[in-house]
């Protein structure tokens, strides 16, 4: 003969059923539709020209970030919408784009709850576009590689066995530099970079260059500076400071460029 359930278990089950019934009886929330106007261009479509497509998203069924809305649009409305994304935590820099007139990361950009205002989304400005919200980062990363962003020593060391010590003061000089995620938000907000991107390295790459110049463990300061000694690589910076204002990581590329 099966044992009877304890009274406490029966009470818990009754409470659970009561809550479920109450939730089912509750009136559905009125849709809160937010409008997103998104830049579209597909080079594989003959005759296609850049244009804006409009989508409406029910914010009652969407996460709080712009990336949440983009994923919802792609999954439920338009699978052809193209953009980069990866970490969703503001670490990888993949989802950099221009949102509401500001270069930022879609994954950490909160959606304005005011449903009467549309959000306009474009790819990063003044860059060639691969498709939709995907910019061509080839030139940007070639410039990054040109500053040789790795530790260089005069003598070989036995990596993994020998440590390169720094004082607390030496280590502090790297704060605000090593955190750069190479999203290119700063460089593509810089008018000087818009005009001279073929020669001027731009805020992001200059910050990365200074990161190694400031590192006490690196021995190639003279050689690094010699590579930058031309009229354009560094000296097109006019301290407009758009780079610092737009950096989604709160860094100061303008200050690094001046140093």
Would you kindly provide a written description of the structure presented here, covering whatever features stand out?
There is one protein chain. This protein is α+β, with helices and mostly antiparallel strands. Helices cover 31% and strands 13% of the residues. It contains nine helices and seven strands. The strands form two sheets. A five-stranded mixed β-sheet has the order 2-1-5-3-4, with helices on one face.
Structure keywords:
single chain, 259 residues, alpha+beta, 5-stranded mixed β-sheet, two-stranded antiparallel ribbon, 9 helices
Structural class: alpha+beta
Determine the fraction of residues in helical runs and give it as a percent range.
Answer: 25-40%
Oligomer: single chain
Helices and strands, in order, run as HEEHEEEEEHHHHHHH
Provide the spatial order of strands within the biggest beta sheet: 2-1-5-3-4
Q: What's the structural blueprint in terms of helices and strands?
A:
Layout: H1 7-25, E1 33-40, E2 51-58, H2 66-76, E3 96-99, E4 102-105, E5 119-122, E6 129-131, E7 134-135, H3 138-146, H4 168-172, H5 191-196, H6 202-213, H7 221-227, H8 242-246, H9 253-258
Parallel strand pairs: 1-5
Antiparallel strand pairs: 1-2, 3-4, 3-5, 6-7
A few lines on this structure:
Helices cover 31% and strands 13% of the residues. The chain is α+β, with helices and mostly antiparallel strands and 259 residues long.
